[in-house]
Amino acid sequence: MPRIAPLETNEQSTEIKIAFIQHKTVYNTKITNMKATLGHSPTAFNVYMQWYPLFEELKRLTGTRLATLFAWSVSKASDCPLCSTYFRKAIIESGENPEALVITEDEQQLLTFGAAIAQQKGFVADEIYDPIREKYSDEEIVVFTAFAGIMIATNIFNNVIHTKIDEYLTPYLSKHQTA
């Protein structure tokens, strides 16, 4: 049961209705339970929706597959059922099995970096950071780190609020999760 219910259409202010319409139009996406809950504060909604341009930047740097796996690794490390299920869905829909991913050593290093940011609250050990430093530019590391931060913020929001997993995601829950 969510601690704060998503806004129903009749509860939405004009400001948030406009923000929702713009968001759906620009990103060709739906207003999920998380977004409808964020709608209680238009400022919070706008801040959290900056996830989208940062994810686009991450995809530009790594490609869609690795960006999705990076977001999933951060969400799993944050123990966020909602976000990890969202990315699990994306992985499955791209034709991969999340339980049997084929990942290169370089990809694994980046995924380990993202998970470590979440698990260690940003205190990433040198043995995890150094391989990233060797392969990526300052700009790329800033994008990876900033994206991990906004992903963690999203994970924390959903975990604190107990945001209900959207119905369209329930078929993608792992065997260890429940809606």
UniProtKB/TrEMBL annotation:
InterPro entries: AhpD-like. Gene3D superfamilies: AhpD-like. This is Carboxymuconolactone decarboxylase family protein. It comes from Dyadobacter frigoris. The lineage of its organism: Bacteria, Pseudomonadati, Bacteroidota, Cytophagia, Cytophagales.
